[in-house]
Amino acid sequence: MKKILPLIILVFFATSIFAQFHQGKIKQKHYLQVIPYQEIKGWIVVPVTINGKSYNFILDTGAPLVLSDKLFNELNLQVISQINPSDIAGERKKMRLILLPEIDLQGITFLNTQGAVFNEDFYWAEWSECLGIDGLIGSNMLRHSVVQFDEQNKQIIIADHIKKLSLQTNEYQKIKLAIKGNNPFVPVILQKGMQTSVRNVLFDTGDANAFFTLSLGESGSGVDIITENEGFFGIGAHRIFRKQKHALLNIPELVVNKMRFNDVIATTTHARESRIGAKLLQYGKITLDYKKKRFYFEPFDNINTSKPVENPWSINIIFQNDKFLVGIIWDNTLESQINIGDEVLSINGIDIQFMSYCEWCMLEIPENDKRIYELKDINTGAIKTVEIERMQLIKE
Question: How far apart are CA 18 and CA 217, in angstroms?
Answer without folding.
Answer: 21
